[in-house]
């Protein structure tokens, strides 16, 4: 990874980590930049347990993979920063060609800007007066800061126009109209409604119509065939809306932004946006996948396998899971049960419980052992996990108190927000550095 | 609330909050101690949204209520600090007579000690060498720091004895034997096993048998009658084990610690521990409820209602829900659907989704409106909640984009860990101060 940073990460390197920092076993204060000198190895149990780790090789692979994917599809990436909220990871994403960072809230935007992010797509609307004032003040104070937000109603346009007017800011606020679908989340429910919103933005002296946006990632149902039809139809609708708004001359930026794409169907979005749009100005097609950077062992793992089956450019060597949570066996109270030192405070539980992958008896020389099929985290309390072992299997005999257990996770977003600091490790689990998160 | 603090909270008051601090809408840096001067009111939408608030009156009520409960039951309280991990709340608990703070991990212990907590009951075992070394170093460095941990196996006793020996610490490490039950979590599965562990502790020159511990709070099943029988039987087992260990002269402290009690059945624990134990030395009966301090609108609300039915001292004016998450209506895309600016990043979803309680159109003069029955958060994404409104109800007409929605939560532990800073409000939702959490 390059050492020339795009963002200002010095304050993070210089910060002092105190005893109690989750994931570390500190006896005294330590500057973050001194972590690499500690010679910590997870397999040697030098950290605290639980500990969350990012596998550097997988991370680098995923960054390069997505860069190549976007180049091939002729789209740009504004990765959703809410996944990680990590300045160091934002930096890696920007160094790998990201167009900007997508965020979900004004406070996330303020944090990203603090570390030097200069282009933010807020994949949400500006609603609250105080939040809106905070971000408009930032735009006023930093003319180089580009900020885009969504809107999905005429009311919303009026509210935001009033707030921009009251702020006294001299540049127009660029907005994307959000198209949704029946039964979905936010977003106009029809092309007609969306066009009306686009016209209202165009007519306001305080606003600028920057583009069209949608989010197809919610179309994950029980019947994937139907999901895929719905996703393709929705992307076509986004394209059609963009053409219509352009035909009416509503867009106000140098480029027309056209954005969709979570981590489930970004291939379909890429393919859908490939349509050679004959518009009045250049189109910037923006994917927003956030989870690709670490991928996972569950939800996105399955979705990517499906993507591989339908998209020839997604080859065997696709995204790799980079995020693991390691804990220790705390108790072996019953022959087929191990209680681990991790729980809801440490790993995602919103889509799947963590996936136990391997075990390791602390010591650099002992070998890690893949856990056999049938090993399963069957429950988590706040600070405990219940690892059920296959009855009468060899692992029932061998797994001891003090053994390490590595778990993969499903849905990175809800693991990242449990770790203010995550260790970056090499292929031998030697600790190389740390990244910070801001939730 | 008294202003004389037991803990060292000055560093928190003096810390500088930067723009981006979740819950606040800051345009510039602000010292935490200046929050009361800002004249912020949640009902006036002066904060960011979502925002988590603690209702001061309910908090004070709960602190006083539990203090009185413990006095009546002749038990002491070591509230589980993992619930809140908040030094300011620990301070309030200690000022209200708490015997110490219960914690779940060594890192939580190090954080509590940093702010001046001098007595910690670790409701878990010391397993990892590096974590154990960190806490033993603390005991060595601060002779006034009292620390107790659990163990549930002969292996565990041997491991910890070796670690204490290697640390060179001169005082014995006080341990409680954990009794469990079949199908439960940690803890010896029989009195015989527990006694064997107690004897091993007694025999070690590095350890001291400080007491007996169990956790009945997991016995929440589908048939409460059976749960209650199991809880009572388990508490009897704890008492019997304590008597047996004392008869063998295994305890080594001045007092014998006898501890159980989560937030579900602390009345039964209190009653069960009332047995006038004729032992060789005084018994300190310790409850560990953590959630009482904020209570909730769901899980514990229901359990307390049951408690009220069976325990005459739990009167009508019992624990009150103190923790709410306020968000804003971001979109009204369909007649009976409102999308709120909060999600899995902001409120508990592990037991129940949040409970929408009331709505308020920003402005101090408008009145809050209780949401009608049938209003329900039916889903949350990372940063969005789906508030379903009863079809064709009046609220479908009146609820607008920009309206505030207050939600109660179920299971405080998994809301606290989403908020590094929580605002404390008076009965009019005027912001009085803030507390910090350390996860």
From TrEMBL, chains A, B:
Q: Check the record and name the Gene3D superfamilies matching this protein.
A: Alanine racemase, D-serine dehydratase-like domain
- D-serine dehydratase-like domain boundaries: 322-426
Q: Sorted alphabetically, which Pfam families does this protein's record hold?
A: D-ser_dehydrat
What is the name attached to this protein's record? Deaminase
Q: What organism does the record attribute this protein to?
A: Undibacterium macrobrachii
Q: Which gene encodes it?
A: ptpT
